[in-house]
Amino acid sequence: MKAPGKLAALSLTALLAVTACGGGEPAPAAQGPQPLRMSIWTSNEAHLKLFNEIAAEYRKSHPQVGEITFDPIPFENYTTTLTTQIAGGNAPDLAWILENSAPDFVGSGALVPLKSKIENAGELVPAATRLWERDGELYAYPFSTSPFGVFVNTDLVKAAGQKMPRELMKAGQWDWEHANEINKAVAAKGENGLTILNFDYKAWDNLATVWQGWGARAWSDDGGTCQFNAPEMVEAMTFLHKAIFTDKSMPGPGTAVDFFSGDTTMAVAQISRAAMLEDATFTWDLVPLPAGPKGEYAVIGQAGIGVLKKSPRAEQATDFLTYFTNAANSAKLAAYFPPARSSLLTADTMAKTSPMLNGEQLQEVVVDGIQKGVVKPSHTGQAELAQTARAALDPLWKPDADVKAVLDGVCAKIQPLLGG
Fold it and tell me: Which region is the signal sequence (predicted)?
């Protein structure tokens, strides 16, 4: 992997604060219909088709708006690339913002206030807006509040002679121990077991989908104390290390696999990925995350859409965001991105626009998950924290790793960055 450049190592908060200040003479007013650009991290054709349909409908009644472009940026480099664009004077008008970058973007003053602009803002679920608020103002619309679930290739489970996760759920046995046994049995037959999407032994925060079952946390609630080496985290990481290197129930480092092509038995992912199964050649199911030693739990990934203050078309971008996220369009987007609007957050409502998933799956994974879920870890200075923690965790992904020693090393590296 390439070493991060100087820009990526900068404090995102500091950079955004500088770019938010503006300065200089305003540019002359542009003539004719003006384009808008939104940075996103999906390149899925079904998602883009829906976005473009909404944009085309908006332009019918807004002739002053030119082409609306949705600009996909690869997920693994998303925030770094977006930061580079902002610092280089090529900021998009609107941008998806990852939950782990929320404290930096919201705290920096780089985003346009939205609360008075959003249609029926009072019906937004408080748990969904918490990351995007400061001093009573809303700085990004939580357009996707999506709990993680487990996609299951039921053909591979059956071929390995194992019970289906849904059978285990009914018996009160759907937990990480039983899930690991299924994937271990599949691996013994030469197939791949469990994969955690977008982790790839780099994006460690996606492991929160596992360690939360042990009650583990990356840092304390106030963000000031590292907890990577707490007993709960050591136990959770020991479980993962054994699964990878002893049980072989998870593909090891450097193994390229794709659940949606039928390469693996299970994948921890969000419901937006269901669109990739439209032409699947295998049977599949979606179930909640397995219970951990601390019981049942749910983990939520969030995406907010914000308008960059530096955009010369910020006012028009805000108006488009208002339209993009109104109740009618939120219902359409709910096919892939669970809504923050309480009026839409029911299995029956979502099932109408989510043909790939049934009401039972939506209730168990999405509706119930949002009610009890915790958001993946976020912190100011997340970019530097993420890079530092990733490098400190690298020694863990070796067969002979001393899990506790590695996690002690993580805390030694990141504690100075936490400010505690």
Answer: 1-22
CA–CA separation, 391 vs 92, rounded Å? 30
pLDDT string in tens for the chain (420-residue length): 333 333 343 456 555 655 555 543 444 456 678 999 999 999 989 899 999 999 999 999 999 999 999 999 998 788 889 988 888 889 999 999 988 889 889 988 899 999 999 999 999 988 788 889 999 999 999 988 888 999 999 999 999 999 999 999 999 999 999 999 999 999 999 999 999 998 999 999 999 999 999 999 999 988 899 999 999 999 999 999 999 999 999 999 999 999 999 999 999 998 878 888 989 999 999 999 999 999 999 998 888 999 999 899 999 999 999 999 999 999 999 888 888 888 888 888 888 777 788 889 989 998 888 877 788 888 888 778 889 999 999 999 999 999 999 999 999 999 999 975
Instruction: Please report, for residues 47, 274, 329, 330, 333, the alpha-carbon distance to residue 50 in angstroms, rounded to integers and kept in the order given.
Output: 5, 15, 10, 11, 8
CA dist., res. 416 & res. 241, Å (int): 27
Q: How far is CA 29 from CA 22, 26, 33, 56, in A?
A: 16, 9, 11, 24
Tell me what percent of the chain is helix, strand and coil, each rounded to the nearest 5.
45, 20, 35
Residue 175 has what DSSP assignment? B
pTM of the model: 0.78
CA 76 → CA 41, 132, 201, 203, distances in Å? 9, 22, 12, 8
**Contact between 84 and 299 (Cβ < 8 Å):** no
